[in-house]
Design the sequence.
């Protein structure tokens, strides 16, 4: 069974539930690291929980949702091996898979609506990394990480 890990903060709790429902309908086994309500929490906690499990290889891909997606991406990108991308439209989402091999999709529940979030989730899941010259660039990013 395909599996995916997801987390959010209070700003995105309702959106996360809808995205999870969609992922399950697509046949995914979904691991939800929280949060579990709309009560105020600190987004780095959830960013780290998802990023560590993607970086370790336990999950190939993850999804993080907060108010803007930005805080989640900043925090997740501190974890070695993570390429977390904030996406607000279809083109960026497709490109961040095809060119950047993004392994975490970050979205902002105060920026896009749920229909868009589900659309972007599908693109994130369905677009393959193109490799080739783009792999060279990913390896250059890895070199920066190892510096
Ligand atoms: C929480 O109010 C908000 O700061 C958070 O959801 C996120 O947008 C941070 O980047």
Sequence:
């Amino acid at each position: 069974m395909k599996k995916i890990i997801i987390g959010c903060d209070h700003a995105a709790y309702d959106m996360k539930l809808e995205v999870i429902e969609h992922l399950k309908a697509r046949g995914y086994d979904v691991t939800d690291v929280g949060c579990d309500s709309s009560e105020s929490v600190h987004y780095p906690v959830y960013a780290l929980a998802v990023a560590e499990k993607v970086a370790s290889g336990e999950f190939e891909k993850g999804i993080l949702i907060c108010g803007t997606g930005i805080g989640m991406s900043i925090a997740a990108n501190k974890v070695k091996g993570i390429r977390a991308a904030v996406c607000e439209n279809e083109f960026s989402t497709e490109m961040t898979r095809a060119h950047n091999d993004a392994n975490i999709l970050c979205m902002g529940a105060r920026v896009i609506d749920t229909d868009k979030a589900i659309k972007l989730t599908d693109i994130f899941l369905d677009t393959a990394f193109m490799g080739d010259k783009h792999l060279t660039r990913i390896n250059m990013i890895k070199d920066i990480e190892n510096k």
Remarks:
- The two ends are 37 Å apart (CA to CA).
